[in-house]
Amino acid sequence: MTKLGEYLAAKSVNKSEVARRTGLSKARVNQLTLNDTTKLRADELYLIALAIDVKPIELLEYVCEGVKLVEVR
Predict the structure, then answer these.
(1) Which residues of 14-31 are buried (b: 16+ CB within 10 A; e: fewer)?
(2) 0.90 cut: is pTM over it?
(3) Which CATH superfamily includes the segment(s) 3-63?
(4) Which end of the chain is more exposed for a tag (fewer CB within 10 A), N or C?
(5) Residue 43 belongs to what H/E stretch?
């Protein structure tokens, strides 16, 4: 499960409802929540955040937790 999938599961969000409200296909929502190699686009994250009534930055910070800049020497 992806970080997005974990977030939606923790909030008890219905993925079919997310698909309907965002215009994303159910297959795409399933990819985004189940497949770690699937890339989440910024516009998709924004639409999902709006659909589940959270601030986009909250969702972004959760799914990007642990992402760090490479230290340059």
Answers:
(1) ebeebbeebebeeeebbb
(2) yes
(3) lambda repressor-like DNA-binding domains (1.10.260.40)
(4) C
(5) helix 42-51
